[in-house]
Amino acid sequence: MTDLFRFSRQPEFRNPSLIVGFSEDAGRLAPKVIDYLNEKIKGDSFCEIEPSEFFSLGGVAVEDNVAQFPDGRFYCGERDDLVIFKGSEPRFGRYQFLQTVLDVAQHHCRIKELYTISGTISSIAHTTPRSILTVFNQPEFQEKLRGYGLENMNWEGWPALNSLLLWVAERRNIPGVSLWPVIPFYLAAVDDSEAQKRVLEFLDKRFGLGIDFSDIDEEVAKQNEKIAQLRVRSPEVDDYVQRLESNLTLTEEESERLAREVEEFLK
Amino acid sequence: MGIRLYEEPKVENPVLIASWPGIGNIGIIAVNYLRQMVKAREFGEIEPWDFFEPRRVLIEGGLLKELEFPSSKFYFQRTKNRDLIFFVGEQQPTESGTPYPGGRKVLEIANLVLDVALKFGCRRVYVSGAALAPIHHMARPRVWAVPNSESLVSEVKSYENTVLMSDVEGRGGQGSITGLNGLLLGVAKKRGLEAVCVLGEIPFYLQGLAMVYPKASKSVLEVLTKVLEIGIDFSVLDKMVAQVEQGIGHLEAQFYEQAPPEVAERIKTWLESFKHKPAESRPITEEDQKWLKEHIDELFKRGGEEDDRPL
Questions:
Q1: Which of B49, B60, B61 is nearest residue A95 as measured by Cβ atoms?
Q2: I want to staple A137 with a disulfide (CB 3.0 to 4.6 A). Which of A166, A184, B17, B244 is the partner?
């Protein structure tokens, strides 16, 4: 077995928090938020997870005409209180993969808290304000983050990778929270700038990042304007969105049609 | 990664009886039935997270309450004639990137099971699984026994309704047992433990169906209880056998109705030839087997889609 991670440099941290996002996500939420954060804090990679234990390396996958390669990297910037991890979801050995992430974060970076980011698809309209559903691994941490406008999640079913990560963190006594902003289902395959902004607002408030949101506000306005154009052009799309705005449900066929129309128009 | 024992049972020369799920869940039904009949008590488990993916999460009020993994548990009971340790695994670890048992993890889990067996002075292991055989579902399944040392062959030959690989038509004493139900035999051999795998026969045409086959579990249990000198009540298992037989009969009838007449006739003839005397019936050729399997699978599946009563 090869070493599971490799440092390119050894930065110093002071009680940092770890923010985790995986590359494949609804509304491109996690990768966009992580990239945005990295840009703001001038983040640079300092450690990477070796892919051979967690991915099939018998070839490369091609997505949107581009060859992909699994990646998992830790980043930090000028601040010594933030560590960021962005990675592909492991194909196998998920528990070992997450242990490796936390080995680096706990033993080398001495993190005090964990934040995971992932979008959750919902049948809301894009004009509805995005809420952030949350899952905590410790009630004390849940109490600590009261006042940030987060909502509690209830769910029983197949566990997502972030739930497993939260559980692994709890076994190490690392307080953690999974942030699950809701994404309108018809924006799942494209960007949801509004949801991205909502998460960044939370992180800005929590870590005092001093983010100037004007660029992202512009993105949100641009996307809303484009969807408004589509609604004018297509009465069918307008009808679907109006029904969602009135908390009415669409049939499976209608939902698929709406998602397809929006996706094609925004791409 | 490891073993968690809740207590240290006081047992003398116990026998380990182990099983994991497999075709028809024959072994695991047999082991679980015996475990319940002798009222064995849980005393430990193998920690699951290194071996298995969680299968369910429970989140309440924004708090992660529970993450559920497949279990791998140990039980014990002292009976009049024998002390018993049971191991029941709800799932077999799979080879990385595949849905099949294999790789480093299966070896690790087999060794952990035997670590516990050896810790409590166990010298003999029984493991149970399924043997695909050209038999009819109304016939009494035999038990194929595979020991892990030559010195056990004569003992195994004396078991009732049991055959060795060499007694099975066309096998010449050769064969393989896939998954942990087989691997444990080999690992036990390496670690100096006597072990016997008892495989209940299941009609090969039922292998593609997601169903249990308790009739073979009963055959396995008849052997195990006699060898271990334990008397148990089979009535609950008998009810399960009758239920499954009824379900298969229902599918069979549907199958003859729906199949083209020439296919139905050929299959009927073949099945009849195996009905009551599996050991004496003529072996089927590989070509026959392929043809029959293709048609029977297709028809049983069709029947299953139209009637979803549990088998």
A1: B49
A2: A166
Nearest chain A residue (CA) to B96 = A92
CA distance A193 to A216: 7
Residues A71/A88, Cβ–Cβ less than 8 Å: yes
Domains of chain B, CATH where assigned? 11-233 (3.40.50.10900), 239-306 (no CATH)
Residues of A near B (CB-CB distance < 8 A)? 56, 91-96, 133-137, 139, 142, 150-160, 163-164, 166-168, 170
pLDDT in tens, A51-74: 888 888 777 777 766 777 899 999
Query: Does the structure show a pLDDT above 60 at B280?
Result: no
Task: Find tokens 């998992």 and name the residue.
Answer: A72
CATH number of A5-211: 3.40.50.10900
Give residue B261's pLDDT: 87
- The mean per-residue pLDDT over the stretch B283-300 comes to 58
Which of A94, A96, A135 faces B59 most closely, judged by CB atoms? Answer: A135
Domain boundaries along the sequence of chain A: 5-211, 216-266
CB burial of B200-230 (b: ≥16 within 10 Å; e: otherwise) equals bbbbbbbeebebbbbbbbbbbbbbbbebbeb
Does the predicted TM-score (pTM) go above 0.90?
A: no
Beta-carbon separation of B62 and A135 below 8 A = yes
How many Å lie between the alpha carbon of B178 and the closest alpha carbon of chain A?
22
> Which whole number is the average pLDDT over B36-44?
97
B62 to A166: CB separation less than 8 angstroms, yes or no: no
Residues of A in contact with B96 (CB under 8 A): 92-93
State the complex-level ipTM: 0.84
Range list of β-strands (E), chain B: 3-5, 15-19, 41-46, 56-60, 63-68, 72-78, 83-89, 124-133, 143-147, 162-164, 194-203
Would you say B13 and B125 are in contact if contact means Cβ atoms under 8 Å apart? no
Residue B168 contacts by C-beta under 8 Å, 6 or more apart in sequence?
B133, B144, B175
Say if the Cβ atoms of B56 and A158 lie within 8 Å.
yes
Q: What is the pLDDT of residues B132-171, one digit of tens each?
A: 888 888 889 999 999 999 999 999 999 999 998 877 766 6
**Nearest Cα residue to B94 out of A5, A91, A70, A3:** A91
Secondary structure class of A186 (helix, strand, coil): helix
